[in-house]
Write a structure and sequence with these properties.
Strand order of the largest sheet: 1-2-3
Strand content: 15-25%
Order of helices and strands: HEHEHEEHHE
Distance between the termini: 26 Å
Helix content: 10-25%
Largest sheet: 3 strands, parallel
Shape: globular
Radius of gyration: 16 Å
Length: 131
């Protein structure tokens, strides 16, 4: 018996992952969601990231196509889909160049004005236990 089974939760743990892009690492919460001990609220303003995550987590996750910030309009810096570096922050090329091949990962393919959302006003989520 593992720890989560010993705790005997009455309700799932509500987990938020902000900028949830599917990259080559397993999130710390993955076993909780897949094991049905948690429900994931997955936020990513880059809609290209969502299909792979839907395939992985299915009905155990709610996918929200939002850039989270202050609720105002901002510029999104859209990078290649496979890099998961799309952000409201402009990639800093000299910092990225410090790491092998990262300067190409941070290449902006387009800039787009977007409306951000504030976490505290999103109706789809309730109480969050883990962010």
């Amino acid at each position: 018996m593992n720890l989560i089974e010993r705790v005997q939760l009455s309700d799932p743990i509500n987990i938020a992952d902000i900028g949830v892009a599917s990259i080559n690492e397993t999130p710390a919460y993955s076993d909780l969601v897949i094991g049905e001990y948690g429900h994931l609220f997955a936020f990513d303003g880059d809609s290209r990231q969502i299909p792979a995550l839907q395939k992985l987590y299915g009905e155990h996750a709610t996918f929200l196509n939002h850039f989270l910030a202050d609720g105002a309009q901002h510029t999104a810096y859209i990078c290649r889909e496979d890099t998961a570096i799309t952000s409201l922050f402009k990639p800093h090329q000299s910092a990225l160049a410090f790491f092998n091949n990262f300067s190409s990962f941070g290449k902006v393919v387009k800039q787009q004005r977007i409306q951000t959302a504030r976490l505290d006003v999103i109706d789809e989520i309730g109480d969050l236990h883990f962010i």
